Amino acid sequence: MAKLKKAARTKTASRKPAAKSAVAASHNLIGTAQQIWAAGIGALARAQGEGTDMFDALVKKGMSLEAQTRKLANGKVDVVRASVEDRVENVREKATDTWDRMEKVFEDRVQRALTRLGVPTREDLAGLIKRVEALTAELRKQNGKAPVAKKAAAPVKKAAKKPVKKAAAAKKVGKSVLPKAPTPRAPKA
User: Fold this and answer.
1) What is the C-alpha to C-alpha distance for residues 42 and 63, in angstroms, rounded to an integer?
2) How far is residue 168's CA from residue 165's CA, in Å, rounded to a whole number?
3) 153 backbone dihedrals φ, ψ, rounded to 5°
4) Which of 143, 150, 181, 183 is nearest to 164 (CA)?
5) Helix (H, G, I), strand (E, B), or coil: what is residue 177?
6) Each residue's pLDDT tens digit in the chain (189 positions)?
7) Distance between terminal CA atoms of the chain?
8) Is the dihedral of CA 146, 147, 152, 155 positive or negative?
9) Using CB atoms within 10 A as the burial measure, which of 2, 50, 136, 145 is most buried?
């Protein structure tokens, strides 16, 4: 039993210093909390005093960073824009070239089809127009006088009189006489 009493005395003795250390720790903790509180209040007072200056400094720093970022971004945008414009121009040139080639092939095929059908070309029509203008000019020179015929061209003389009469009649009516269009040929199979 003596051992138990001795153990109980040691436990009580050890509890007293633990209680003292707990009280000291709590006083320590309270002191530390008061110091933290005081530091926070001091920081608040300092921030209020220097807040405007700090805010202005932060705004100035932010503006300079924004200017640098814009400058960098604009440089990159210009590079990208130039690259895109070059690519678009290349594609446009290729598309135009391809379109021109397709148009040429189409025109050639249409021309061949019209030729097979016997439709006169622009050159044919231009030649006919020139002939009609020359004949009209010749008729105006003669002013209705009978053309001087050659001896060997007697049958042609009669044929020439008919178009003159028709032309004169057409002139009075206001219509022009055009030569007949060539007859179309059947396409080859």
Assistant:
1) 30
2) 5
3) -100, 35
4) 143
5) coil
6) 666 666 666 655 555 666 778 788 888 889 888 899 888 888 878 777 777 777 788 888 888 988 888 888 887 888 888 888 999 999 999 999 999 999 999 999 998 998 899 888 888 899 999 999 999 999 999 876 655 554 544 444 444 444 444 444 445 545 555 556 666 666 665
7) 137
8) negative
9) 136
